[in-house]
Amino acid sequence: MRKITTEQLLKSAKRNILLILIPAILLFALVFYKTVIKEYKSYKSTAMLMVTGQSKDQAISYNNIILNEKLANIYSGFLESSDLYSDVGKKMGGVLTPSEIKANLEYDVNPQGGVISFTFSDTNADRAKDCLTLITEEFRNYALKLLNMDNINYLQKPQLEKYSLTKGMIFSMAGLFAGLLLGILLSILKEILSDRIRDEKDIEDMGLRVLGNIYEDEKACIYTTKSTINHLTENAVIGITSINPKKSTYDFSEKLAQTMSTSLGLCLIDSMGENKNVEKKYQSSEEDVKILRYKDMDFIILREKSDRILDSYAFEEKIFDLKNTYNYVLINESSLRGLGPIISLRYEDYKIVVVNENISMEKLIRKIKAIEDMGCKVLGVIYDK
Question: Which stretches are transmembrane (predicted)?
Fold first, then answer.
């Protein structure tokens, strides 16, 4: 499991902003609908009944309390009777069906206290109060009729509860904050479990040499790469490639070559023909390699379908001639998904690999191992967002 710092958490929050906002918005909308929009059009009537002793003069004893507790449990069974709701429906004049009455009723039984609480919801205020009054009266009649017990009294007669917009908004905001917290937790969990490269520190933690971060400081990255090449290599052919097929390395390769050419003999090869400033007539083939002078450096641009050129013996011999002529030969290549970087491994001494945050650490390790298994060393890795 990966360890993450506060700074990485903040960066993760920026990357996963939708993951944080979506649960918050959904929970806010759900609670707002239930507590504000839906409840705004609904009225609630509440009542409380209490199971008391058989005689008002009878002193309260432990046995009476136990008896009342058992009676409360027995009486609560009446509320499951469909006949009770049918009787209420008839007295309501058929305005509500028995199933609607039962669905709109909520009740809670507290056996220890012998208290039964009722809540009835309806879109009509008078109907909400009248229906709950009939329910409680029928409930008391059932106890008297079936058990001959007249010991259920009102602790609170049916009354309408005033709708509170403030209460609904408080619940809605609580839902919003709960959603934000959930989103943050999901973001942290995603970051911990993710195998994706977050920044150059992840690359360093893998034991790989980091040459810089193009996205944050391209100039520093170029000079770090130049110094690394100058101090760790000598008279070498170096390929510059990317793992991401959508990321071109040409701009970086050209700027690096320009920087190096001020103090070192260098030739840059554009194997992808990405430079659009050079006319096609100056492009090279395997039989005719043209060395141009471009921006104060020696430059070779290959024609389209360069894989065939890179794979030719004539071009391979030319590469070795260039190596004997220059201190360094830089080859700007396609991504590692293409054939070019694989073909050129046979005459390259080093590769520089550009990665971004969409690449998994496992994939980067696998690609680097494949390069080094072919006898070419990876000089370093460059991070580009």
Answer: 17-36, 169-189
